[in-house]
Amino acid sequence: MQHTVTPVGIIRSCFKEKFAIPRQPQLAPAARGVLELLPPFDQGDAVEGLEQVSHVWLLFLFHQALEDKPRLKVRPPRLGGNRSMGVFATRATHRPNGIGQSVVRLEGVEPGRLLLSGIDLLDGTPVLDIKPYVPYADSIAGASNQMASQAPAAIAVQWCDNALLQAREHALRLGEPLVELIEQCLAQDPRPAYQVPPAERVYGVKFWDVQVRWHYPQPDVIRVLEVVLA
Ligand code: SAM
């Protein structure tokens, strides 16, 4: 049976590329975005009552990871990228039908727009459905997952003086918690698993409209070098 789905909205996100997006929602509370609803859901009626809800589930399409050939096994970054697992045992982006799910904080409800934080979604992500988080049903005391029993350990993020000044200025201009966003995302250590880069190797990513560059002066320390307009 084939079934066609149509997005109800599109995410406008602080994340402009896949690199350095946290692996799950809630890991970076300063990661904010707007879900722009598409007709006919852009009218107030579709979101009436949602202001009573603190969090929503988003079902979305991993639109930048769609593949024709289904994979049965994947190598989750969480397991170091060198152990394979059944696709249904993981939250990998390469999966049948390319459907992702994230529970995110609902910061505001406007006709045609939902204001979100704690997101792990790329800019332009098509959203297929929105459902209210239901604490008594969705939070399961005693639930376990031996592969992902707790959030990944955060690593230290340090700033060059000038980079911190730059980040504060751009935060003011954007009206966004940019310093916190950078610290929360880089603390997740975006580099590929087990890569031990030389200290002179510089990494970069675009958040909002700024380019953030950093290096690893020690294997488990990030130093932010600059935050400049992309
Ligand atoms: N919370 C979701 C889930 O469990 O289905 C996503 C988990 S997935 C492991 C998180 C990663 O998806 C992020 O680190 C980001 O790189 C990637 N991602 C986010 N939005 C995407 C999109 N629209 N297309 C492809 N990859 C995306």
From TrEMBL:
Query: What top-level branch of life does the organism fall under?
Result: Bacteria
Q: Which SUPFAM superfamilies match?
A: YaeB-like
Which source organism? Pseudomonas inefficax
Q: What is this protein called?
A: TsaA-like domain-containing protein
The GO molecular function terms of this record are:
tRNA (L-threonylcarbamoyladenosine(37)-C2) methyltransferase activity
Q: Which residues form the TsaA-like domain?
A: 5-142
Cite the PANTHER family for this sequence: TRNA (ADENINE(37)-N6)-METHYLTRANSFERASE
Lineage start: Bacteria, Pseudomonadati, Pseudomonadota, Gammaproteobacteria, Pseudomonadales
List keywords of the entry alphabetically.
Answer: S-adenosyl-L-methionine
Family, similarity comment: Belongs to the tRNA methyltransferase O family.
CDD domains linked = UPF0066
